[in-house]
Amino acid sequence: MIELTGTIYLKAGREASARRFHPWIFSGAIQSIENNPAEGDWVEVKDSKKQPVGFGHYQKGTISVRLLSFSSLPNKNIYLEKIEAAFTLRSISKVITEKTNGYRLVHGEGDGLPGLIVDIYNGVAVIQAHSIGMHRDRHRIAEAIQEKSAGLVHTIYYKSQNTLGVGTPAENEYLLGLGAVPHVMIEHGNKFFVDWEEGQKTGFFLDQRENRKRLAEMAEGATVLNTFSYTGGFSVYALAAGATLVHSVDASEKAVDLTKKNIELNGFDPQHHACTVADTFDFLKDKKDTYDMIILDPPAFAKHKDARHQAMKGYQRLNAEAMRAIKPNGIIFTFSCSQVVDKQLFYDTVVSSAIQAGREIKVLQHLGQPADHPVSIFHPEGEYLKGLILFVK
Ligand code: SAH
Fold it and tell me: What is the residue with the minimal CA distance to atom 8 of ligand 1?
């Protein structure tokens, strides 16, 4: 059973965003707190007239409550209902297919579960909690995933050691089964090793699936540079599509090893692939007229608003270097996954790179995150991945 501990009363008028299904209650909106709830407790939120607003997880900090329900008191089945809805969405949107068994099952607020991420890799679910409430409810969540996966999920790994902040000890552990890493999953028919224990985040960047597919549509016969390659996702798709040479570059040796393994796993001719452990900025310096296509998929340069200015300089320089280097009639896939850098800001930065590079450039397409990373229309903060396909004359 969900046990309610406290009640949060809002200041007059501050219920408006929750009435529009925005799930965050900020500390500044709170008038009073009854019963002194502990971190991660379930609380009820009421407006200044004591009318119900919703229910959710309480936590000290700027976001004081993450709402999981905007109506009645959730019964013990709240996770069952929400996980079922998440599976249904992936099925309706055709994310889960015979050729794809790696997908995001829960994308936080986009799936009505603020503070929770669940990625599935061919029968293995990796749960990541970003709130103490989700951490405390992890066993309930695991049970719901197991029950609603219709036998598809045989292993559940809980990985939140680095996502909960100081003061909340969360050991990484198996909640179901015992995984054997690395483990193979498929994405549009391409095979990838996934290592959720040692890998970054939950082990793989599923959010680029459709953008990798788009790259494949354009990569036949091309020489391709994949920078910030990590597991080599874009490299594998380019080779599968018949690129003549793919060069993967990442600053981490571990990442480059993973890329090599994935190239082998798919049975590609190693002659068509090269990889280098290097800083992308250095690597690009003497590569003029070497590649037909360049992929720029850096880590989030800005994790907070304070870091945004410095980050924009990074994106600006990176894109300008690639624009200078690429062959005539070349294609650049450029991305930013910084949530605090919105689409317009990213676009404007790329424009400024183009001015600096001094080449004629056209925007062919805007790219974003796929259907298994849904964004609640009332919670635009859930949108983080943006990209552009550029044509450089
Ligand atoms: N494109 C990848 C995901 C990139 S994650 C995919 O499709 O899965 C970001 C990667 O950038 C990490 O592997 C990290 O090791 C690497 N990285 C960070 N800074 C770098 C730099 N300056 N030069 C090259 N690689 C870098």
Answer: 205
- Say if pTM beats, i.e. exceeds, 0.85: yes
Q: Give the number of the atom of ligand 1 that is nearest the alpha carbon of residue 231.
A: 8
Whether pLDDT at 169 is above 80: no
Fold held by 78-185: Transcription Regulator spoIIAA (3.30.750)
User: Is residue 38's pLDDT more than 90?
Assistant: yes
Selecting among 337, 345, 354, 389, the annotated active-site residue is 337
How many angstroms does the Cα of residue 229 sit away from the middle of ligand 1?
Answer: 6
Instruction: Give residue 74's pLDDT band: very low, low, confident or very high (50, 70, 90).
Output: confident
Band the pLDDT of 233: cuts 50, 70, 90.
very high
- CB of 319 within 6 A of ligand 1: the answer is no
Distance, CA 111 to ligand 1 centroid (Å)?
A: 27
Q: Answer yes or no: is the C-beta of 251 below 6 A from any ligand 1 atom.
A: yes
Distance CA 48, CA 55 (A): 16
Q: Class of 4-69 per CATH?
A: mainly beta
Q: pLDDT tens-digit profile of 89-102?
A: 999 999 999 999 99
List the chain domain ranges.
Answer: 4-69, 78-185, 205-392
Is 275 one of the annotated active-site residues of the chain?
no
Considering the domain 205-392, what is its CATH architecture?
3-Layer(aba) Sandwich (3.40)
